[in-house]
Amino acid sequence: MKEISEAPLSGLLVVDLTRAVAGPFATMLLGDMGARVIKVEEEGVGDETRQWGPPFVQGISSYFLSMNRNKESVALNLKNEQGRSLLAAMTAKADVVIENFRPGVMDRLGFGYHSLSAVNPRLIYASISGFGQTGPDRLRPGYDLVLQAMSGLMDVSRTEGEPPVKVAFPVADILTALFTGQAIVTALYSRERTGRGRYIDVSLMEGMLCAMSNLAGSYLATGKQPQRVGTAQANIVPYQMFQCEDGALICGAPNERLWERFCEAIARPEWLRDERYRGNAARTRHRQELVDAIAAVLRAGTVAHWIARFEENQIPCGPVLDMEHALGNPQVAARGAIVETMHPKLGPVRLVGNPMRMSGFTPSYKPPPDLGADTERLRKEFLG
User: Fold this and answer.
1) Which residues pair with 347 in a beta bridge?
2) Which of 75, 223, 273, 360 suits a disulfide with 3, CB 3.0-4.6 Å?
3) How many other β-carbons are positioned within 10 Å of the β-carbon of residue 333?
4) How many other C-beta atoms lie within 10 A of the C-beta of residue 53?
């Protein structure tokens, strides 16, 4: 059988009216898969992440570089006729339009879904917002940090008695980007059968709640707040971080076969006969005493010693790495997870590649564009 070699989204035109993180990350992934992504930026200002730093590399934000490869940039003023006419021409031919303005703004500008779909009925139009297009909070600004707090994530991620904890990367934005991308691909599949586009409404709030389904489900089932267990998992014991003689490691036993091997690995076979630890539910009820006992054992050895023991017994485990060692992991190199693109000003730029692997296709990576780098070319292409 002949293998497919064309990029999966080849021929797809995406007009990207987003900035910051959730929208640009979603469109970057579409661009990696072969879509043509035209990034529309405010004339003279550009995407706000162009100013997010340090670090800057020769004046260019590393944050912007990490979110905007495989795109063209057009700088427009949507309040003047010249900018509006070019955007209208591009959206008339687009397969997908994606925007993250405050709800109602695109309608007032004349580029809302109903206006554009009247001209282009096959158009798929995605709106990303903090709280959704309807409801009492629809106009409330919704950045990642706000939604990490309001979704319950920061509260439940802490250890009891400690202050709320923020996840280090913009988890609400990235999850929403992934949901948006899936919705767009689903709508494209639907369009193949119906010939019609769809409107997509994705919010950071609902993205976070959906991603936290196990925690939300626990509360909905019992009416009780989820336990605040820090690095541990409320429903599985053991499954958390432990301190060793020279550092920290993560390990766990999510099922009974692994629990048996875990006890063998740390030379505590007597725990298998202890009724307090017979079954995960019992271990969860006696969480503190068991965790304290495991901690005492692991503190007596080094991280390398315990990882060797756990790997020998096929127990899930790993060291707690800093960014240098995480990116330098031989497995990362073996998978080709770090890619390189040639930037016209910076030369070789290394980025984290797209994790989606498909037979017959390897993504290529074009560097993130300078503000308005493609404006004149696109004006000629779409307006003649």
Assistant:
1) 343
2) 360
3) 11
4) 14
- The CA-based angle 152-241-239, given to 5 degrees, is 75
* Cα dihedral value 377, 382, 383, 384, nearest 10: 70
Those residues whose C-beta lies under 8 Å from the C-beta of residue 198, and which sit 6 or more positions away, are 124, 125, 187, 190, 191
CB contact at 8 A, 94 and 125: no
Q: What is the pLDDT of residues 243-302, one digit of tens each?
A: 999 999 999 999 999 999 999 999 999 999 999 999 999 999 999 999 999 999 999 999
Both tokens of 220, joined, read 């909905």
Which residue, chain included where needed, has tokens 């969860």? 284
At 67 the three-state DSSP class reads helix
Q: Catalytic residue positions?
A: 173
Residue type, 291: V
205 within 8 A of 250, measured Cβ to Cβ: no
State both tokens at 308.
């060797």
C-beta neighbour count of 105 within 10 angstroms: 15
For residue 22, give the nearest of 243, 211, 202 by alpha carbon: 202
Structure tokens at 63: 């944050």
Give residue-wise pLDDT tens across range 200-253.
999 999 999 999 999 999 999 999 999 898 999 989 999 999 999 999 999 999
